[in-house]
Records
---
Amino acid sequence: MNNKLIKWSIAACALTVAVSCSKKNETAQSVDPKSADSVNVSQLKPTGATPEWGKTIKPEMQAVMEKLASYGDKPIETLTPEEARKNHTPTDAVMDLVKENNIAVPAPKVDTTGVNINVAGGKIHARVYTPKTGKASYPIIVYYHGGGFVIADLDVYNASAQGLAEQTEAVVVSVAYRLAPENKFPTAHNDAFAAYEWVVKNAATIKGDAKKIAVVGESAGGNLAANVSIMARDKKIMIPLHQVLVYPIAQSDMNTASYTKYAGAKPLNKAMMEWFTKHYLNNMNEAKDPRISLINANLAGLPPTTIITAEIDPLHDDGTMLADKLSAAGVKVNSKNYDGVTHEFYGMAIVVPQAKEAQAYAAEQLKAALK
């Protein structure tokens, strides 16, 4: 495992960010039994001026972005995918802030195991988070991480997946779909559905209730989660009871108001989105495919949907446009925007108050759907 991912995995798991999950044995390890609730994360203060690209940024969010900038990595859009995967991530920045500010990291409330899933052309891995409450059966959430279909992995997004399991008391299956450019469109989309189909058929083997399944995804993963619901509908297998889409990629026009206003934002900017698109798609005409441009897909009959957006994010308008299109198609939609935060804020609950609020909001929606 990449050293950066090991460090992040130790520091940034769960809603309150709690444990590490080794890829080798995927056994949760306690870092610090003390409660993080006693720590006032609002004490985190930025050291520099408010950035030009985000004048409304909250101080805790700015502190994370300053830490990320301090590593001096080259911009992702100037790198090869192999090089980009070695860059520090926002999760590394959170981890360092946790250490530097002596923020307590609570013990895990879940156990983790790994499963391998057969897909067209090979196998993919998934990490299964099971609450430690000892029940015979739990609802299931299938989770898809972000990274533009090109970078990141289960470790980078461990905090989000484990937070879901701990807050909803559900089994969470976090899917390591294959990445581009080694695996071009629609590989990630097909892997995402294959993993969902595996969960439906094998729920009992992971202490899951096959009648109570939801999907959740962030960014590129939000796009995948919505596509899973569409494919389930079209293939006439069980449709998820709910979907939570966190700042999803939902359309291909990079000249929306939020793309224009936050073209230079961090940690995601317009140039990075162009880079992701180039590496995932076989050609740029595929950007109009309804699997990429969800706002042009048939959205009728999809499950009730929760959409979470960030103010300082090129993808902000993707989320609002998709919410409008879903509502127009007769889908029940609840959406919430969080001011003063950037793309990738959702997994930062241990240092960013808005992330804690957003995770609690998503958990509330999921528990209501899966009860």
---
Amino acid sequence: MTPARPGDAYVQSFARGLSVIRVFNARRSAMTLTEVAEAAGLTRAGARRILLTLVQLGYVSNDGRLFRLTPRILELGFAYLSSMPFWDLAEPVMETLAAEVHQSCSATVLDGTDIVYVLRVPAGRNMSVNLGVGSRLPAYCSAMGRVLLADLDDAALDDALRRSDLAAHTPLTLTDPARLKEVIAQVRRQGWALVDRELETGLVAISAPIRDHGGRTIAALNLSGQAHLITAEQMRERLLPPLLAAAERINGLMRRQ
């Protein structure tokens, strides 16, 4: 797919600054100037100007050789989280739900072809990866992702699947676009999604939508568990009712805002 060309309103220097911020992650928490430039696809001179600007603004620190993000970078993410209408409403409901069913509870939003975690109440460790606010996972093979994709119209769904890297994360992962569209259409009809060991071997998850005043899905509420402790069928029978009830409580609180 050919990327769209930047328009007249595109500020290239700002885009490059964001690209520098994004190269820092758990595997690359501290980098030299050369490493940042290579990871961001910039010249050393360009990377240096951006890094020194970020240092002056307090978003990056430098000990003379290595550059690191500072805690101030969290302002950028929490500005988004604090603007979300269901942030304060959903968290106590999720804590109650997780305590009731003894499973991890999460809320995510859709960003392109990924889901992004915006709230999480863990109950033990269900996944091999360490998930927290800001973590990303592919939408097509996750329960939350399918709930969020189900709210797209057919054209937008086709585009999202076309742009997705439909890799098989486990032997059970659905990767055929036509089959995925059928499954997502079923999610749209029934109002919830169940994914059994498609994202990760041993992980089963069930998800329901969180909707705004107009009925648009703005987030997905999820319960996840370990397949050797709870089967997909047991999750549907035991956990779907309290999950749907919790989602409706959040939706009701949203309607009263």
---
Amino acid sequence: MIDIGLSKMALIGAVALIVIGPEKLPRVARTVGTLLGKAQRYVNDVKSEVNRSMELDELRKMKDTVESAARDVHQSVQTHASEFQSSWDSGQDSANSIAPPSTHVEPVPPQYRHPGKNWRVKRGATPQWYKARAGVRGKVLSGAARVARYRPK
């Protein structure tokens, strides 16, 4: 890298002051500063793009390894399932030859019935002691009944 010390910077500034002149020197310094800033931003953008591409390559490699592991697991499960099915079928054949066929009929499970919009069922899930402690009203009172009930004596 370029080794620029304080003495070299002072020498460059003195030469620029003599060559460019004191009137144009501030404008030239601003232009050089903006160009250096743009160059630094460009270099930073290139660095970040390279880092992103490297991370993307790493993610692709990781994805490939995960997919290959998943394929291996799927194949091993398929082979074990086929082995189990063949042993199960051979066991069933021997069991069928020993025992006579049964006339057992399986019961039909009850059909599911959606509770609908019954808010009482939903409110019933809250325990009564919690409702009492939280002050949830169980019954609706009219205005006159409320005044009669809570009237100071």
---
Amino acid sequence: MIDFGFDKLALIGAVALIVIGPERLPRVARTVGHLIGKAQRYVSDVKAEVSRSIELEELKKMKTEMETAARDVGQAVQQEVDGANQAFAQTWSDLGDNSIGGDLGSHAYEGNSFGATAYKRPKKNWRLKRGATPQWYKQQLGVRRHAQSGAARVARYRPAGAALRRSTPP
């Protein structure tokens, strides 16, 4: 960059005072200051844009590297799973061919040959769970605590003045 010392700035100021004149010098100096400020902002914006584009390129490169690494890991895991499935299938077929105990091969897929019982879901008693909630909490949330017919619900939530108007004949 250009290096200006105090003596060079004083010389430029004196020449500008003589050439431009004392009346227009402040306005010209203000305009030159604005232009220099705009130029500095433009240069800083360009520098920031260049750094952002460089960072973006680095991020894209890192993304592609991560995707290839993840794909490689996925392929390796899939190969291991396939190998394990093949080994299991081979062992299963060998076990079925030998038919240990005579009756194992025919009942291998039923699940009862080894004494295992079928899975039964645990019972979920929702009445017990609802009964464990405190009454004040249910009231605060507006949970109905007992069954009520539609007509009873309408009668319960009808405004007080509406009941008097309906009871009197027209």
